[in-house]
Amino acid sequence: MRWQRFQMRLLAAGLLAAACLLGADEGWIGMFDGKTLDGWKAGDNPESWSVKDGKIVGDGERSHLFYMLRECENCEFKAEVKINHGGNSGMYFRAKFGPEWPAGYEAQVNNTHSDWRRTGSLYRFADIKEQLIPDDTWWTQHVIANGNHIIIKVNEKVVVDYVDEKNTYRKGLLALQQHNKGSVVEFRNLVMRMLPPN
Length: 198
Prior knowledge:
Layout: H1 2-24, E1 29-30, E2 40-42, E3 49-52, E4 55-59, E5 63-72, E6 75-83, E7 89-95, E8 105-109, E9 139-146, E10 149-154, E11 157-163, E12 172-178, E13 184-194
Antiparallel strand pairs: 1-13, 2-5, 3-4, 4-13, 5-12, 6-9, 6-13, 7-8, 7-12, 9-10, 10-11
């Protein structure tokens, strides 16, 4: 009888753990199939983007690659990122589609570029000066945009927690940046999820 009760408790604990794991993934949408750029569109210089070994790679002239299937008003945006020495990139959110430098928020991707704003910065709103990530190293960058409250996490550590009193950008697209020739950036495991309206 005790053995049966122990087994039932073990089963219940396992089911609870499974439910928690499923709940943690609830609502996340995969943005990249690992093979093509379906659902993505470059604002200019599309030749700067390719798919290699299950990753989106930016390498070439300045370009921004927009995810065209959903807009972000209140959302989360997460990816694994790697960038070369001296490289510069970013993860845009609530951005306007178009050529050159899009209007929108940017979560900076830059470990050793000459621009002093480093990885994890909310570019020009809440900037980080110290280098958090070594070059040529994979890390996870996670953006949470909920109304005018913006959080950026690097490897699950909160590095920016900012309230934009002006609510500068309210709605727009998610995008990846290829900043300049010589920068080589890679993205994988790109996901997003919508958050309820405020």
